[in-house]
Input
Amino acid sequence: MILLLAIACGVLLLYTVTHTHATEITHCYDGDTCYLKGQHKLRIGDINTPEIRGDCKRESTLAILAKDNLNNLIKNADKVTVKVYDVDKYGRLVGNVYINGKNYTSLVWDKPWYSLNKKNWCK
Output
């Protein structure tokens, strides 16, 4: 048990470094989940976006808009920084994404697919 805890802590410490290259994020699945090199999933903190496999067509449509927006921001950025600060209950890394020095959430707070909390996107 202690060994497992040590390994888990070591993994967390390994990923608390700041990544400063856009190539560290290979792609984003939706507006709040991306993949890093090495097949690690990153859950972007402080944001909730619709699910691709949502409960209605509106949710899925908003999810695709969120995904496309995030992927375009990253693709066209001069600098992308990922600051990992946690691991969630699903084993995903949790962190903030900075695009050209600006927190991603500050770039999308006024979008129709942005929320701080879980939201019913079908209403």
Summary: The longest strand covers residues 80-87. The radius of gyration is 15 Å. The mean pLDDT is 82. The CA atoms of residues 79 and 100 lie 5 Å apart.
